[in-house]
Amino acid sequence: MIFTQQKLVFRIIETYHLQQKNVRFDERGRHYASLSFRFRSDAFIHSKNESIRMSDNTVSFFPPDVDYRREAGQDHLIAIDLDVDNYDGERVERFVTSRPEEIGRLFYEIHKMWSSGRMDRFYRASALLYALFAELYGECAEQDDGMPAILRRAIEYLEGHLDDPELSVTEAARHVGVSEVYLRRLFREHRQTSPKRYLTDARIRKAKSLLSSGFYSVGQTALKCGFRDEKYFSTCFRRQVGLSPSRYVYSR
């Protein structure tokens, strides 16, 4: 989930405080992400592959370029539209907080600051947004779905060293103090993948984010994602995304 990922970068676009009834709304062609907190809600979110039921005290994240329909008898929420770097996903995510007063307060303070018209509103609202994600990160970690602490530490280590071309499964296993065989077993049981595949997927996710930002060339992106060889990076990228890195940039 986005709430447990590290090194994300946010830029607020707009905030909204909505109290709606009998809603039927199609959201299409949205090229930015949206984060929301629902104070009261019975909404259903219908996307391409799934339907998700919202409820009171639900925090939800909508990635960019994900079309959906929202239907609700009542929907009282604060939404924050934003650009996000270092994240790539295609599914709507939801999380029911066990601390709705604190989380709801932070959403309200972000909206209040952003709507204030103050000259420094961008910095103050952004600081509150990072504080919000810190709170959500901690709560998601506490309520993790049974993932062992060793696996969590290994994932954090891999995610934190994606730019290191020397990074390996052997090194990650050594860092958390287990054998490679045991680490592979944990990944299979709890993430249904291998640690090597997880590492490659994470590097490609980061590459897509960097390329989408428009600030990095294909060669620079390869280096920042731990690939020494631009040609090999392009091969891995095409295999996973279906497009070459340069074509991916052109298609955005």
The number of distinct structural domains comes to: 2
- CATH fold-level name of the largest domain: Jelly Rolls
Poorly predicted regions: none
What is the number of beta strands? 7
What can you see in these coordinates?
The protein has 252 residues and is of the alpha+beta class. The protein folds into two domains: 2-142, Regulatory protein AraC (Jelly Rolls), CATH 2.60.120.280; 149-251, Orthogonal Bundle (Arc Repressor Mutant, subunit A), CATH 1.10.10. The chain has helices at 100-114, 121-142, 149-160, 169-176, 180-191, 195-213, 218-224, 230-241, 245-251, and strands at residues 9-27, 33-41, 44-47, 51-53, 58-62, 68-85, 93-96. Strands 1, 2, 3, 4, 5, 6 and 7 form a seven-stranded antiparallel sheet that branches. The model has no long low-confidence stretch (mean pLDDT 88).
Descriptive tags:
2 domains; 252 residues; Arc Repressor Mutant, subunit A; globular; alpha+beta; 45% helix; Jelly Rolls
Question: Could you give a short description of this structure?
Answer:
The chain contains 9 helices and 7 strands, in the order E-E-E-E-E-E-E-H-H-H-H-H-H-H-H-H. With 252 residues, the protein is α+β, with helices and mostly antiparallel strands. The protein folds into 2 domains: 2-142, Regulatory protein AraC (Jelly Rolls); 149-251, Homeodomain-like (Arc Repressor Mutant, subunit A).
Annotate the secondary structure layout.
Elements: E1 9-27, E2 33-41, E3 44-47, E4 51-53, E5 58-62, E6 68-85, E7 93-96, H1 100-114, H2 121-142, H3 149-160, H4 169-176, H5 180-191, H6 195-213, H7 218-224, H8 230-241, H9 245-251
Antiparallel strand pairs: 1-6, 2-5, 2-6, 3-4, 3-6, 5-7
